[in-house]
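[Help] Beginner question about ligand-bound structures

Sorry if this is basic. My supervisor gave me a protein sequence and a SMILES string for zinc ion and asked me to "get the holo structure". I don't really know what that means in practice or what format the answer should be in. Inputs are pasted below exactly as I got them.
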Amino acid sequence: MTSVLYDAIGELVTCDRAVGDGSPLGLLHDAAVVIEDGRVAWLGRSGDAPATDDRVELGGRCVIPGFVDSHTHLVFAGQRSAEFAARMAGEPYAAGGIRTTVAATRTATDSELRTLLDARVAETRRQGTTTLEIKSGYGLRVEDEIRLLRLAREVTDETTFLGAHVVPEEYRHDPESYVGLVAGEMLEACAPHARWIDVFVEDGAFDADAARVILEAGRRHDLGLRVHANQLGPGPGVQLACELGAASADHCTHLTDHDVAAMSDSGTVATLVPGAEFSTRSPYADGRRLLDAGVTVALASDCNPGTSFTSSLPFVIALAVRECGLTPAEAVWSATAGGATALRRHDVGRITVGAHGHLTVLDAPDHVHLAYRPGVPLASVLAG
Ligand SMILES: [Zn+2]
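Answer (accepted):
No worries, everyone starts somewhere. Holo just means with the ligand present. The predicted complex, written as structure tokens, is below.
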């Protein structure tokens, strides 16, 4: 057994309202945390800490739970900077750009994809992320979707089968057959490598009927449900997610009052990805409206080469505060405990006894600095 005392923490964000100031962030000041064999063994006032094997002095800096990025597309080859530049020059975004990345990913070897994935995971850790969900969805053939999920499984347990990302080129004139493949043979082959199933419900991607067939098939294979919903316009995605008991509806940019009420009633988490709105120059999701209605809000990067090529939760937090109406405290909660809730995890995203010892340190005295100092590399993984 090895125990380490992280001491002289200026502000400790536990995301446990039972401790400290009683707020959702559960703030403790002049605090310390003991990690023993990878788990949180003790937390409290600096000076009250038990004896440990090692001690790390934090010099008054802020410590938060490692970020939980509950929505990423990290396994892919190629990049689409020309598409981004065109969009910034005034061309609109349509869902079909995904096919460009599919073509590049299919021709990449496992070793090439693994190298790219490992570099991206390292990039997230340099910015304070300790838990990642990773989707497939750039293979869109049975053997390629399995390949992407296997590679994702090498770096996380939170893998999501997204065969229903877009209808691939070869099925363009027969999308119904592709839905049959995704809900049948492809799901059968991919389910052992996935914890979740997701569908991109949008004009140009999949409609509600197709999504229902695929999600219900996923549930029969014991996969949890997630939905890309209401990104580019109003649509049926959020209602479907809530009706089927999905853990999370992601994007939630264009919502009716009915959609907001459905999320509030169902407990489906609204995962906001303002990096996508930034990168597509689109209107931002109204996080304030969701929070005021009692909806649980998570923040994620949606890291992907087309519409949100950022892996930075600090950037996402700053955007959510500036553009989605979240307070700095709400944004930090949503990028940690909120992401964990979107993955139905209680052992990450919070610093509580027994949880994974995933600590992120800020080169700052408090959590507000994440939004207050946008673009400054304050966050990094301390433990976990
Ligand atoms: Zn996405």
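A couple of things worth pointing out: The radius of gyration is 20 Å. The chain has a mean pLDDT of 96. Feel free to follow up in the thread.
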